[in-house]
Write a structure and sequence with these properties.
Layout: H1 2-5, H2 10-26, H3 32-53, H4 58-71, H5 73-94, H6 101-122
Length: 123
């Protein structure tokens, strides 16, 4: 939906946040301080960017905060790395100033999960 209408439905980030909350009790890693840092740091930074420049949408901020809480700060850094490279290529190729970030965050999360899966198979 973000690709066509530039809207991120609330149920997406809420469900990710709920899954992150449930996984916090079921799985010990990442620890609570890393989850809270993943929740607060990107949220504050993106919120300041959104307010000052208006370049980041509210849905992108909420989705990134939910991913940060669900995966933790370190994993969110990897997800953003995997997401922002294709987003940069897309933005340069299409010469658009507005990029549907949720699409690339999904790509980054899938690439991060793939790396973890492949790493788990080889170890």
């Amino acid at each position: 939906m973000d690709w066509k209408k530039r809207i991120i439905p609330d149920w997406t980030w809420i469900s990710i946040l709920l899954i992150g909350g449930a996984s916090a009790f079921l799985f010990p890693e990442p620890a609570w301080p890393e989850r809270i840092a993943g929740f607060l740091l990107p949220g504050v930074c993106l919120l300041m960017l959104a307010v000052k420049y208006g370049g980041v949408g509210g849905g992108d901020v909420k989705l990134t905060v939910a991913l940060g809480f669900c995966f933790g700060l370190n994993a969110l850094a990897a997800i953003l790395f995997f997401a922002l490279l294709p987003a940069l290529v897309y933005g340069l190729a299409t010469r658009q100033r507005s990029i549907p970030l949720a699409v690339f965050l999904c790509i980054g999360a899938l690439m991060y999960a793939s790396v973890l899966f492949i790493y788990g198979l080889t170890c």
